[in-house]
Each structure stands twice: as C-alpha cells, then as structure tokens.
C-alpha cells in the first residue's frame, strides 16, 4: 500500500483520538464548566488551547522530526535527551500513568457495582491488563483493533452522553465561582495544562508513525502527512467532547452544586437523565477511555525500550504490563502523590523542546 484510503485514515484518526481520551480528560471539563458558570465558553476556549492545542502541536512536531522523541531532544544533547526520554516513558508508562488508568476506571466504572476493596481491584486489574496485553502484542493491528472496533463503541457512548448534555441539560447555566469570576480564560488555560496530555503526545507520536508504517507506507513525507491528519482528526474529536462536557458541568449546578469533582457531576447527571442505565453508560465510557490510553502507553514503551535496549518488544510489553498491574494495586492516592511532582517537573522542558522543533 502506497497511500491510506479514506476509511483507513479515519480509523487512524479515531485511534489517535482514543489514545488521548483518558479518564482525566472526561473528569476535568465538567468540573471546570460548573465553576465557570456564565463564563463557560471563555474557560472552555482556554482549556482547548492547552488541552488540545499543545498535544496537537506535539504530534505535528514529532511528525516533522520522524515520529520519535529521540530527535526531538537533540537540542539538549544525546545523554540528556536519552535520560529525559526514559523519564517521560517511565512516568507515563509503568510507574504512574498506566497503572492510574486501571485504578481510575475501576473506581469510576466498576466500584459502584462491586464496591471498593483489594480483592475486587485485584480481579479487575488482572482482567484489565490481560486485555491490554492482548491488544499490544501485535502493534501492527492497533488501527484495526482500536481505531475500527473499540473507538466506534466509545464514540457511540460519548455521542449519547454529549448529545444528552446538549439537548437535555439538567438546568440553566449557573453562576461562576472562585477565580473563574475574574479570569475564566486563564483558569481554563491552566486546567488544560494540568491534563498534561503533551507528555502523552510525546510517546504517542511513535505509536502513530509505527501504525502508519505497518500499513505499508514507507515514504517519510506521507508518514508525516498522515500523522498530522490523524492529529487534526483527534483534536477535532477531543474539542467536541470537551465542549459538550463543559456545557454539561455549567448546566448541572442544580443537581450537583455540592460536587467536589467531575466524577460526582457526571454521576449525578447520568443518574438523573438515564436512571440506573446511566451508571452503566458512564462505566462503559470511562473503562474504554482508560483502556485505549493504556494500550497506547504500553505500546509506546515497548517500541521505545526495545529500540534502546537489547530486549524484544514482546518482553518489554509483558514486563511493563505485569509491573503496571502490581503498581495499580497500591491504590490511587499513593499514585497521585508520587506522580504529580515528577510530571510537573518534566512538563515545562517538554514544552520547550516542542517549541524548538517547530521553529
């Protein structure tokens, strides 16, 4: 194959969209929307700048340099570049982000039905990472398995949720609170920054490029072009999801005014709108969103470390999946407390490197 057909290109974009849409991306917008109130669209615009714009620029930057983080880090030297790349891959891979996808999907999608506890979490994470491992063992089929099968199911569930938020809001747009009263654009900008999807984009670049090459595309210019198109498709999808969720939050003050986070807002909305089936809908959305992100992260780590070290891709993904399983069973609170300082330290340097590659 010398060119991607329209459906294959759309599937590639869907896969890229699914890689980015983790649980955090679904939780933050409703919370920010509720706090923004009448300034919801200003806050949403700020959120899109950093929550969608920066990751899209990262995909473009990686496409321009060939898809790998190694070339992106050339300005800081080989040793420092390798050290930075290892830190990024480990942080968003087996140490923090990948285990977190399992724990968050359990607490939001499964625990309401099974209850919290070590045994249910263990059973769920074993099943979860078994599915992840099955999907990542053949990275050449990610577009088929994720882009053509899982993502359409996720999109269907999101369409139901987003459509309900727009056409059947819980109430009128409420009042703004806190810092959103005076600086909604800035607050939205900061919330989008805190998703830290740019770090995810750094490692997903190689997954996207590999998926394209596995379709028989060898021309580097086409790989770059298709990577950019996939990034635009993903950015468009993410923007639509975020806007719907911002509106959902802004119109839910009447039913979830005391909510402390996006999970509580979403839960209150789906239960009022859909009843018991709403909890099941939310469970499907959260679980699939987390699953596809974990697949992308483990695949990226496998590609990177099998190139860096004398070990096979298969060995890396098996070891990292097992390690992520063990870490996930330590609990979400410990994961967050350990990961936030590390991720905050890596993020500014990542943004600088991306900016340098674009100019």
Automatic annotation (TrEMBL):
<feature type="transmembrane region" description="Helical">
    <location>
        <begin position="335"/>
        <end position="358"/>
    </location>
</feature>
<keyword id="KW-1133">Transmembrane helix</keyword>
<feature type="transmembrane region" description="Helical">
    <location>
        <begin position="76"/>
        <end position="97"/>
    </location>
</feature>
<feature type="transmembrane region" description="Helical">
    <location>
        <begin position="190"/>
        <end position="212"/>
    </location>
</feature>
<comment type="similarity">
    <text>Belongs to the branched chain amino acid transporter family.</text>
</comment>
<keyword id="KW-0029">Amino-acid transport</keyword>
<dbReference type="GO" id="GO:0015188">
    <property type="term" value="F:L-isoleucine transmembrane transporter activity"/>
</dbReference>
<keyword id="KW-0812">Transmembrane</keyword>
<dbReference type="GO" id="GO:0015190">
    <property type="term" value="F:L-leucine transmembrane transporter activity"/>
</dbReference>
<dbReference type="GO" id="GO:0015818">
    <property type="term" value="P:isoleucine transport"/>
</dbReference>
<feature type="transmembrane region" description="Helical">
    <location>
        <begin position="311"/>
        <end position="329"/>
    </location>
</feature>
<keyword id="KW-0472">Membrane</keyword>
<keyword id="KW-1003">Cell membrane</keyword>
<feature type="transmembrane region" description="Helical">
    <location>
        <begin position="224"/>
        <end position="248"/>
    </location>
</feature>
<comment type="function">
    <text>Component of the transport system for branched-chain amino acids.</text>
</comment>
<keyword id="KW-0813">Transport</keyword>
<protein>
    <recommendedName>
        <fullName>Branched-chain amino acid transport system carrier protein</fullName>
    </recommendedName>
</protein>
<feature type="transmembrane region" description="Helical">
    <location>
        <begin position="280"/>
        <end position="299"/>
    </location>
</feature>
<dbReference type="Pfam" id="PF05525">
    <property type="entry name" value="Branch_AA_trans"/>
</dbReference>
<feature type="transmembrane region" description="Helical">
    <location>
        <begin position="7"/>
        <end position="28"/>
    </location>
</feature>
<feature type="transmembrane region" description="Helical">
    <location>
        <begin position="117"/>
        <end position="137"/>
    </location>
</feature>
<dbReference type="GO" id="GO:0005304">
    <property type="term" value="F:L-valine transmembrane transporter activity"/>
</dbReference>
<dbReference type="GO" id="GO:0015820">
    <property type="term" value="P:L-leucine transport"/>
</dbReference>
<dbReference type="InterPro" id="IPR004685">
    <property type="entry name" value="Brnchd-chn_aa_trnsp_Livcs"/>
</dbReference>
<dbReference type="GO" id="GO:0005886">
    <property type="term" value="C:plasma membrane"/>
</dbReference>
<feature type="transmembrane region" description="Helical">
    <location>
        <begin position="40"/>
        <end position="64"/>
    </location>
</feature>
<feature type="transmembrane region" description="Helical">
    <location>
        <begin position="149"/>
        <end position="170"/>
    </location>
</feature>
């Amino acid at each position: 194959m010398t060119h991607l057909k329209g459906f294959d290109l759309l599937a590639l974009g869907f896969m890229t969209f699914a890689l980015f849409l983790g649980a955090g991306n679904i939780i933050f917008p409703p919370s920010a929307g509720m706090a923004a109130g009448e300034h919801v669209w200003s806050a949403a615009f700020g959120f899109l700048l950093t929550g969608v714009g920066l990751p899209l620029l990262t995909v473009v930057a990686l496409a321009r340099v060939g898809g790998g983080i190694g070339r992106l880090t050339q300005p800081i030297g080989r040793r420092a570049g390798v050290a930075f790349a290892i830190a990024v891959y480990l942080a968003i891979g087996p140490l923090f982000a990948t285990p977190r996808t399992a724990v968050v999907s359990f607490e939001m999608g499964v625990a309401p039905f099974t209850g919290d506890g070590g045994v249910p979490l263990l059973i769920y994470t074993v099943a979860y990472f078994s599915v992840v491992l099955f999907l990542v063992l053949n990275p050449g089929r990610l577009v088929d398995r994720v882009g053509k099968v899982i993502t359409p199911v996720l999109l269907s569930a999101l369409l139901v949720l987003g459509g309900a938020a727009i056409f059947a809001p819980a109430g009128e747009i409420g009042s703004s609170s806190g810092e959103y009263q005076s600086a909604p654009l800035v607050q939205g900008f900061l919330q989008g920054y805190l998703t830290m999807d740019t770090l995810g984009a750094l490692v997903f670049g190689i997954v996207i490029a590999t998926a394209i090459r596995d379709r028989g595309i060898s021309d580097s210019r086409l790989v770059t072009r298709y990577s950019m198109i996939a990034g635009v498709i993903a950015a468009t999808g993410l923007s639509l999801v975020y806007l719907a969720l911002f509106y959902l939050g802004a119109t839910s003050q009447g039913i979830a005014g005391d909510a402390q986070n996006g999970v509580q807002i979403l839960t209150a909305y789906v239960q009022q709108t859909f009843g018991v089936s709403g909890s099941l809908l939310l469970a499907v959305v959260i679980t699939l969103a987390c699953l596809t992100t974990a697949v992308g992260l483990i695949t990226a780590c496998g590609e990177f470390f099998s190139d860096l070290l004398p070990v096979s891709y298969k060995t890396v993904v098996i070891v990292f999946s097992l390690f992520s399983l063990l870490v996930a069973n330590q609990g979400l609170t410990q994961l967050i407390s350990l990961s936030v300082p590390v991720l905050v330290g890596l993020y500014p340097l990542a943004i600088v490197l991306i900016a340098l590659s674009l100019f």
